[in-house]
Amino acid sequence: MGARDGPFARTAVSGGANTKEPFMSSHATPIPMMSSACGPLQGQAHVPGDKSISHRSLILGAMCIGETRITGLLEGDDVLDTAKAMRAFGAEVTDHGGGQWSVRGVGVGGFAEPDHVIDCGNSGTGVRLIMGAMATTPITVTFTGDASLNGRPMGRVTDPLALFGTRAVGRAGGRLPMTLVGAAGPVPVRYVVPVPSAQVKSAVLLAGLNAPGQTVVIEKEATRDHTERMLQGFGATLTVEDTDEGRVITLTGQPELQPQDIVVPRDPSSAAFPVCAALIVPGSDVLVPNIGLNPTRAGLFTTLQEMGADLTFENLRSEGGEPVADLRARFSPDLRGITVPADRAASMIDEYPVLSVVAAFAQGVTDMPGVKELRVKESDRIDAMAQGLRAAGVTVDEGPDWWRVTGVGHGHVPGGVTVQSRLDHRIAMAFLVMGMAAQNPVIVDDAAPITTSFPIFEPLMNDLGAQIARISA
Ligand code: S3P
């Protein structure tokens, strides 16, 4: 059956309002997938390692002298691109199989000049953190990425890096491809991060590693704090103080970082997909073991509980200084819309696409204010989700920094639509989750981007009972 036959008579979603051309896949062969209504989802979902911690493990490992060993590294395209980049800077990065990796680093300030362009693929985290890590070493590096990454703003990182003495030349609007010339005599920096972004904060801290004296980063809203925790773990002197001005992070430059043995926790942002799917598919009962519940990442789970989700944390414990639990999600027939507090946005910024799907199956309105950052992710996520949800029969209102989904309740989401993933893994996965409980199947035009963060998504969801199938383009 073709995409526009039978249940697919609804209009296909067109390109975003703010784009001049139809969205293109950077993959030679797009992988369209169809997700159809399924029976209960049941069993255990062992999701992959945390993407944020995986990038940081490789980068910090490359900035030590000696061998860092990593267990449970996310082997998604984004992280593999960072591994390649670290090799290009002179680190020895070895894949021992089964999620075991090692990095023999070159020390702070020890990066060699790569002899080729650094291609970070789809990864904003990869490129922005690597820019920071090389910015205070006198080498020249050219960065590029896929069509999504080359459309994203880099000025938010190159502006503070310029304060260290780093020079950057890129395309109009601070876009990749872009060449950075690292500072030969870096000076320490005091920087108030103007947007809630862990990538920007982290880029400045990584640059501060090779500057003498103290680099101070102040964030008004707390964002994920993996860089701070891991820098302390690698032996850097770093303090965090909550003040009237915000969260003040002070790093003493030019430390000798000590190699570590790292066990990467499983990614709460990936756990979000089987959890949300279980809440909306009747009869489901899914356990998602060993999920890191760092408070700077766990906002979605609080939000779901406030919406009436049957979601519990079992076996709550502490591992490597971080709270960890097994998440148990069961079908939740009485979900209701809520207002998600704006000050929670940073702790669930990657989870709004799948939350908007859950909101469609709830009764009443879910308001999501304070989410301007969603417009500059792998895609404009408000626009991508709003267009797909509307085409699938759900009312969505939006403004520059807010959006609102009016739920139609369980069993009433029409679906029957083809949506565009726009090179965005989380858009693809969110709509495949919608198809599991909609009245008619949902087709995602290209699910290939899912490999950036959750390469086992399709078999994992199908093992639980989902009906996701690859179809011909
Ligand atoms: C990340 C920070 C967030 C998040 C991204 C991962 C990180 O981006 O969306 O998926 O690992 O630092 P921003 O810094 O742009 O908010």
Overall tally of domains: 2
What strand line-up does the widest sheet have? 21-22-1-23
- What is the residue-averaged pLDDT? 94
Number of strands: 23
What structural class results from the helix and strand content? Answer: alpha+beta
- Indicate the radius of gyration in whole angstroms: 22 Å
Distance between the termini: 12 Å
Overall, the morphology is globular
Question: Approximately how much helix is present in the residues?
Answer: 25-40%
Report low-confidence residues grouped into runs of 5 or more: 1-26
How is the biggest beta sheet arranged?
Answer: 4 strands, mixed
Please count the helical segments: 12
Q: Bound compounds, please?
A: shikimate-3-phosphate
CATH class assignment of the largest domain: Alpha Beta
Please name the fourth-level CATH homologous superfamily of the largest domain: Enolpyruvate transferase domain
The CATH architecture designation of the largest domain is: Alpha-beta prism
Report the sheet-strand fraction. 25-35%
